[in-house]
């Protein structure tokens, strides 16, 4: 008689299915907030014939309101984080299908020079402000690069290069998240206050808003022209991250107090300095420029990008705890705020002085 096998091999779990299962609750919550936000926008349109508050802004506010009274458990967090990051990156990538490289050429060398100059001047000025407020060198560099280039992405890229501590990273990123949301909500108010045209507002948003996806959220209410120009300007800012990180890598021994080992030269991987969704954006823009993306497809692609943006804004709101403002240091708060105000003033000055947009 055969001996009974005591060891039963457990059934294999499909990793893709397991991943989708873990993400589903958070994503569905973000979609629910999105549907409510879109419904409220439609109600505005029915009552006033025009939405005074766009669905994506409602999604941010509603998400923040929920987050204030409810702390998401790990069951929800992964899906919320996925919606806030990956889905928004997909939305940005899809936006490339509506932009032709002819727009970059048409922008001219003056705008490109203004973008590069703004990044360099703002890094130096923000670093100086932070140091004057008594912040350490590493924290000052994190604030300067995050404020001048692309917010959390720049902070995350620069931190390991300069050897920043986890406390420095957490403090700078937490306040940047709050300020980024406030910028998305408040920047459109400058359109009527300053009499900005679509092109001018697009340049302002591209020069001042922290993250590429947030530029999309801040410019959608101003129209497609502002969105296209704002995204273009912001992409040039993001591409400045590569040279900045390389430069700080060369200066890294000064921050650690040690000299680099000549037998182990530092290697730079340019592909790691450019996020995948920016590469996708550029590829789609190239396809659009070459006529590989037909005109009839641009509308649906743009609409899908818009819906994904609202979902991501809901996730962004759900991930922001407004009480974090009270926990970050007063000097960090002052440094980030003053740096942002300076960036706004420099950008507005360039727009009017050089007559950009």
UniProtKB/TrEMBL annotation:
It is a multi-pass membrane protein. It is found in: Cell membrane. The chain crosses the membrane at residues 20-40, 52-70, 82-104, 110-129, 141-163, 169-191, 203-226, 232-252, 273-292, 304-325, 332-354. It comes from Methylobacterium gnaphalii. Keywords: Cell membrane, Membrane, Transmembrane, Transmembrane helix. Belongs to the UPF0324 family. GO terms for cellular component: plasma membrane. This is UPF0324 membrane protein.
């Amino acid at each position: 008689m055969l001996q009974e096998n005591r060891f039963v091999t457990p059934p294999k779990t499909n990793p893709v299915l397991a991943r989708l299962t873990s993400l589903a609750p958070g994503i569905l919550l973000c979609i629910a907030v999105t549907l409510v936000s879109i419904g409220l926008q439609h109600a505005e349109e029915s009552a006033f014939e025009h939405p005074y508050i766009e669905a994506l802004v409602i999604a941010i506010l509603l998400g923040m309101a929920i987050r204030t009274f409810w702390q998401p458990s790990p069951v929800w967090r992964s899906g919320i984080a996925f919606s806030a990051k990956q889905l928004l990156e997909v939305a940005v990538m899809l936006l490339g299908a509506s932009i032709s490289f002819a727009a970059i050429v048409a922008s001219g060398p003056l705008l490109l020079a203004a973008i590069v100059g703004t990044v360099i001047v703002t890094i130096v000025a923000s670093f100086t402000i932070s140091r004057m407020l008594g912040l350490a060198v590493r924290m000052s560099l994190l604030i300067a690069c995050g404020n001048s280039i692309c917010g959390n992405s720049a902070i995350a890229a620069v931190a390991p290069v300069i050897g920043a501590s986890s406390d420095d990273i957490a403090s700078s990123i937490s306040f940047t998240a709050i300020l980024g949301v406030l910028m998305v909500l408040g920047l459109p108010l400058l359109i009527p206050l300053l009499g900005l045209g679509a092109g001018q507002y697009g340049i302002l948003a591209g020069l001042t808003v922290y993250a590429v996806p947030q530029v999309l959220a801040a410019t959608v209410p101003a129209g497609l022209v502002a969105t296209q120009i704002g995204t273009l300007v912001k992409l040039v800012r993001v591409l400045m991250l590569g040279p900045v990180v390389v430069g700080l890598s060369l200066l890294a021994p000064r921050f650690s107090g040690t000299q680099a080992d000549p037998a182990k030269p530092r290697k730079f991987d340019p592909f790691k300095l450019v996020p995948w969704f920016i590469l996708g954006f550029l590829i789609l823009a190239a396809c659009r420029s070459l006529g590989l993306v037909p005109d009839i497809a641009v509308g649906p692609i743009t609409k899908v990008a818009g819906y994904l943006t609202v979902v991501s804004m809901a996730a962004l709101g759900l991930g922001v705890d407004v009480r974090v403002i009270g926990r970050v240091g007063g000097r960090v708060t002052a440094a980030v705020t003053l740096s942002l105000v300076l960036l706004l003033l420099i950008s507005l000055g360039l727009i009017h002085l050089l007559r950009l947009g």
